[in-house]
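Please, structure for the following, as tokens.
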Amino acid sequence: MKCYSRTEHNIHYSIYSQSFECRLDPNERFSPLDLIERIRDQKEELGMIIDLTYTTRYYGAEELPDTLCYCKILTVGHEVPDHETIFKFKSAVKKFLKENQDNDKLIGVHCTHGLNRTGYLVCRYLIDEGMTPNAAIALTGHLPTFSCKHERSSQGGITVQVK
């Protein structure tokens, strides 16, 4: 399994649906389409997004290109994901990897803040596939997360700072 790592410093992102973008300064916007573009700039291709947010208000599959797989797994925050959620996540990843054995397409995984749900499920997958817990934590610790600072916006999104 290939893990993609990218480091950016002091960049503010917001996760918003297109209906909110007109209210925001361009520097405050960060959408799945921005992610696709940034990955493309790195000569990589995003093949799937796994959305672990426990809401549908940020964006929807209809805003994504038809060529991108989208998997919505409603995952409660501030709790360890339950067995059903873990099964759905692992099944989605395994299915995608099986169907994409002949390419290097990436899987993007996100939750609302990039802290608990994303990290837990990625580590859990790696551990269940045979990686040691310490190795899984070390590997995912080098991946970009949006965990340093977050603020709720009155306009319905989350502003996060990457360090």
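Residues 6 and 144 are 6 Å apart (CA to CA). The domain at 11-162 is CATH 3.90.190.10 (Protein-Tyrosine Phosphatase; Chain A).
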